[in-house]
């Protein structure tokens, strides 16, 4: 019986010593942090005041519950923030991708459609302007040539009229010859030579007048048959000259009609060229406006891309900072929760009246 009692006392003493050692370790662990020291002060003050142990237990349990709720709220808020972050990242990345596509597509349209179209329209305008310039040159040249031709016509008609007048003089002289003297014959021959001088060598009348001169040089003007032959030849020559004047006049009239028709044709072509230039200019203006609009859109989308990229970088940096804050706060809450649980275990121990901080 004494042996049993002794064993029981030894066991009680050993248990008390183990509990004392555990309390000392818990107390040392609590003292490692400011939060733990605060709890130890709370326990010490409560011990010194002699308050009910259950009241302190309830206070620490309430503190533990608060920490658990704060930790749960922290986890919830961070999860919400993570979801917002992920959604924003997806949205910004999509915005960046859309902006890149818009920039590339717009540049492709400019390079492969609008810029070549503008160059093509400008080339067409330049070509038609060249045609228009040639048209005016042809117009001015036609007027100059017509003036020269008309001057030549008037000179030729004047020449033929002079020749006609000279023939009339020659006919009148022949009509006055009854017994021609040598002087009269010379005068008649000189008249024929005057006609020859008035008829240009390239005229179709030149051979005829030369034949008349030859005839008059070798004939006997006392012979009436000879005179009749010469008069007939002169009349035939005069009629040929008049016919030539009529032909030249008719040809001049036709040349005027053809000239006016040609000028009208040139004017029609010029106006058609101008209409083509006007239409092309409208197209060019519209194309330039479209180019300006697309360049502005491209630049805006490039600026959007830059802005979205900056926003994405800022969001990633902000989220990284918030993640660090969350991690540190969670670790702090976890440490405080562990300290509080240790403090609760200490308060629930058999004796904590000797706790000193």
UniProtKB/TrEMBL annotation:
<feature type="signal peptide">
    <location>
        <begin position="1"/>
        <end position="20"/>
    </location>
</feature>
<keyword id="KW-0175">Coiled coil</keyword>
<protein>
    <submittedName>
        <fullName>Uncharacterized protein</fullName>
    </submittedName>
</protein>
<keyword id="KW-0732">Signal</keyword>
<feature type="coiled-coil region">
    <location>
        <begin position="53"/>
        <end position="84"/>
    </location>
</feature>
